[in-house]
């Protein structure tokens, strides 16, 4: 697969610059914000029509009627592919590119210019409410998967928008929180996936995140958008704000933000005109911004004419294949799976008939069809005489409140069966955009169902449907466990294929499943205070932490079983570790009777160094099909920065001298072969980088292995190489205050209540749908007042907002002056 950097189109850039030279100031400013919720403005004088962008990390979400950003209103039918958390478990770059091509075809057929995805933020904590939309806790895996999907989408003549840039790792206070992160952790963990994806795919656009990064809103952050993105990584596309994420429109132009979305009736366009007129913004800076937008419009105009009819049945078949490759077999004692024919099988769990196959929020797709696992199993049973299915709901699929009667029904059919297949997981209300999860454990009803049914004296299989990692009690009682994640509209048939042996599981976890939430080093700092979250755990996220401190986990990163059995025979280093193009050739043998696919993983382990590193880091991977009884070899490229660290003082990657091992395995904790490597001293290592030594007596190591696992202020200051910033106060109120913060004052409580009720009235949702109402309320409570004013289409002006802020701060004289001012 081609992973080389895509070539730039200098001709389009030149043409765009020529058009900008002919534009008026008003025309330039007008292009810097959207026409409405999903469309850019047109430029009729130059015959450039309005472009449409729309959500779609795992399926197109083009809304047919009134627009909203969170998927509350109906969208046109589209193929719902597995979510990112599921696709990541495939570790399959070819599959991701093929899925991207299908997404691109559906996008082009709907005359949409840019698909807003994929999302690639690192899974810092499993409670992240949007983790189902993100790939992994590892940046290399994340970046390569994203690049493959982007190449697929853009091969169809439409653009992809990589998001959310950057360090958007939680939903709690996502629009106002300040992520405080040291520079080395930023470069090696939170920015690295974006760097890989941009180097290998050059997306048409990047979306800036809501949050602040080290004190500055991402949409205003010149270091992030210009220095890192454009200068260091040579990104050539445009930067678009997340919806209502723009903070200061003039400052954001200077920082490198091209397009503000959604439209706001031209309010911020006028701000740009005034800024150029009074000299606070140069027209050259505005021209640079507009040139990128024009180039995007020209690029979209070049799209080849594609069929408007999409082969949706073929795409559904692809969705089923993608789901099959993404399901992870986590346990299979006594070869419980595949299911045997001629048995009475108790199918328990409402998800078997009403599948949970995608997340809730802006990525929610209106699927073209839905496969239920029970229906597929029933069809299989009909084809095998003597095979009989029994069924019990076990729980309510929507919210799963405790219900002993449903458990009793489930136990009754379990006792009458030869084997139990129990579908469990997280209801949609448990994980959604706008809110982080409240618990890592399964709902009590699901956990009790597993405990009680597994105690019945028949073999038990549990199939999980969830968007991110969970904890699970009583696993020893379960004979087999399938992690289905949220595997899209064909999830039911794909799961049935795995259960019946029509397909051989090949997925591997792209995140660690901890034993307990309290085991996470980041847990003490997630989600932080109202306006600040400190990343004190540094590089030690996921397997980087658990493997460094030898802490037990439920399931490790990279883990997954198969109906095949693979033996790792040998591994050979090809090339100079100090040069580019290093490959590891790995040879395996499938000594089973099942053809199967194995995901071979390379980890670089640090044996000795004067610069701290996690014990091991993923440095390469490949998926390999091996027929039963045969041997196969695969060449795996080693990550360019496998032996590097990011030197903050020199602002560049440096080779880290020392003793290393390249470990080859089937997971981060199942390492079968090892190649020793020595990196000699060739350039000085900066002493300030030895903040945390690999020496076990180091302060950081002691802190993160202690019972409390708290990282002291002194260590965090050393990591930041500056004082820890104080948390921004919530008073006095500002235009960036939220309704939640207003509730801290008596007057604010009344205003917040009235404002929320008014906004809810204008939201076209079913008021009896408590989940959607909760989502809307979460959005309203956490959105800065300024953003809501801009999104109100003139119903609530910035002038009115400023008057209100003065009144809330008891500055009534200033409120009057503002009122009287033109």
From TrEMBL:
The entry's keywords: Carbohydrate metabolism, Glycosidase, Hydrolase
GO molecular function: hydrolase activity, hydrolyzing O-glycosyl compounds
Annotated Fibronectin type III-like domain residues: 598-668
Pfam families (UniProt xref): Fn3-like, Glyco_hydro_3, Glyco_hydro_3_C
Gene Ontology BP, a term: carbohydrate metabolic process
Listed Gene3D superfamilies: Glycoside hydrolase family 3 C-terminal domain, Glycoside hydrolase, family 3, N-terminal domain, Immunoglobulins
Family to which this protein belongs: Belongs to the glycosyl hydrolase 3 family.
Protein name, per record: Glycosyl hydrolase
UniProt lineage: Bacteria, Pseudomonadati, Pseudomonadota, Gammaproteobacteria, Cellvibrionales
């Amino acid at each position: 697969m081609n992973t080389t950097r895509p070539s730039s189109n200098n001709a389009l850039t030149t043409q765009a610059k020529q058009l900008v030279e002919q534009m008026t100031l008003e025309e330039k400013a007008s292009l810097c914000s959207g026409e409405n919720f999903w469309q850019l403005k047109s430029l009729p004088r130059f015959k450039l029509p309005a472009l449409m962008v729309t959500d779609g990390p795992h399926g197109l979400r083009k809304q047919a009627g009134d627009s909203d950003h969170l998927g509350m209103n109906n969208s046109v039918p589209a193929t719902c592919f597995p979510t990112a958390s599921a696709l990541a478990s495939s570790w399959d770059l070819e599959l991701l590119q093929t899925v991207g091509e299908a997404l691109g075809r559906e996008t082009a057929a709907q005359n949409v210019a840019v698909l807003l995805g994929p999302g690639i933020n690192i899974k810092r904590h499993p409670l992240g409410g949007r983790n189902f939309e993100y790939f992994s806790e590892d940046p290399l895996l994340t970046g390569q998967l994203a690049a493959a999907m982007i190449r697929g989408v853009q091969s169809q003549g439409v653009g992809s928008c990589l998001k959310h840039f950057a360090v958007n790792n939680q939903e709690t206070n996502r629009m106002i929180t300040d992520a405080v992160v040291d520079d080395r952790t930023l470069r090696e963990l939170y920015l690295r996936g974006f760097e890989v994806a941009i180097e290998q795919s050059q997306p048409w656009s990047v979306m800036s995140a809501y949050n602040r990064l080290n004190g500055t809103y991402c949409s205003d952050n010149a270091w992030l958008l210009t220095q890192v993105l454009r200068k260091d990584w040579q990104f050539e596309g445009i930067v678009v704000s997340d919806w209502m994420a723009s903070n200061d429109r003039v400052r954001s132009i200077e920082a490198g933000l091209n397009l503000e979305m959604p439209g706001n009736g031209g309010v911020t366009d006028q701000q740009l005109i005034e800024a150029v007129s009074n000299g606070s913004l140069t027209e050259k800076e505005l021209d640079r911004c507009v040139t990128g937008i024009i180039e995007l419009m020209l690029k979209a105009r070049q799209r080849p004419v594609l069929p408007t009819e999409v082969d949706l049945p073929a795409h559904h078949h692809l969705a089923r294949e993608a789901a099959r490759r993404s399901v992870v077999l986590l346990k299979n004692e006594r070869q419980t799976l595949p299911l045997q024919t001629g048995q009475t099988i108790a199918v328990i769990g409402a998800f078997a008939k009403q599948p949970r196959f995608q997340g809730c929020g802006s990525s929610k797709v209106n699927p073209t069809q839905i496969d239920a696992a029970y229906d597929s199993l029933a069809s299989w049973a009909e084809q095998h005489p003597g095979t009989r299915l029994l069924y019990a709901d076990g729980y309510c699929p929507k919210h799963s409140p405790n219900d002993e009667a449903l458990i009793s029904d489930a136990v009754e059919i379990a006792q009458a069966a030869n084997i139990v297949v129990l579908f469990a997981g997280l209801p949609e209300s448990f994980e959604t955009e706008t809110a982080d999860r409240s618990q890592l454990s399964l709902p009590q009803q699901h956990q009790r169902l597993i405990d009680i049914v597994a105690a019945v004296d028949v073999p038990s299989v549990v199939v999980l449907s969830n968007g991110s990692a969970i904890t699970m009690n009583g696993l020893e009682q379960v004979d087999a466990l399938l992690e289905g994640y949220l595997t899209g509209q064909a999830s039911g048939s794909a799961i049935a294929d795995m259960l019946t042996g029509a397909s051989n599981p090949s997925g591997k976890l792209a995140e660690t499943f901890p034993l307990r939430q309290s085991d996470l080093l980041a847990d003490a700092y997630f989600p932080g205070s109202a306006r600040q979250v400190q990343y004190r755990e540094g590089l030690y996220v996921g397997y980087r932490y658990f493997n460094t401190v030898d802490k037990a986990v439920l399931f490790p990163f990279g883990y997954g079983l198969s109906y095949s059995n693979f033996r790792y025979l040998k591994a050979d280093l090809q090339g100079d570790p100090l040069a580019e193009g290093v490959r590891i050739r790995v040879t395996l043998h499938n000594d089973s009777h099942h053809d199967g696919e194995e995901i071979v993983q390379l980890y670089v382990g640090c044996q000795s160094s004067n610069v701290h590193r996690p014990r091991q880091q993923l440095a390469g991977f490949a998926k390999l099909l091996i027929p039963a009884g045969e041997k196969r070899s695969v060449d795996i490229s080693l990550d360019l920065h496998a032996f590097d660290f990011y030197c903050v003082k020199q602002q560049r990657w440096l080779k880290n001298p020392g003793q290393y091992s390249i470990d080859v395995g089937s997971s981060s904790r199942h390492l079968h072969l090892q190649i020793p490597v020595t990196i000699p001293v060739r350039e000085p290592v900066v002493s300030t980088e030895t903040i945390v030594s690999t020496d076990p007596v180091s302060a950081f190591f002691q802190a993160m292995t202690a019972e409390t696992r708290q990282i002291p202020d002194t260590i965090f200051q050393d990591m930041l190489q500056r004082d820890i910033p104080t948390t921004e106060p919530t008073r006095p109120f500002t235009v960036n205050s939220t309704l939640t913060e207003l509730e801290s004052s008596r007057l604010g409580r009344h205003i917040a209540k009235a404002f929320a009720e008014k906004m809810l009235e204008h939201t076209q949702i079913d008021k009896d749908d408590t989940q959607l109402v909760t989502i809307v309320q979460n959005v309203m409570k956490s959105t800065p007042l300024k953003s809501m004013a801009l999104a109100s289409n003139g119903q609530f002006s910035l002038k009115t907002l400023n008057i209100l802020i003065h009144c809330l701060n008891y500055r009534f004289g200033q409120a009057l002056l503002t009122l009287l001012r033109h």
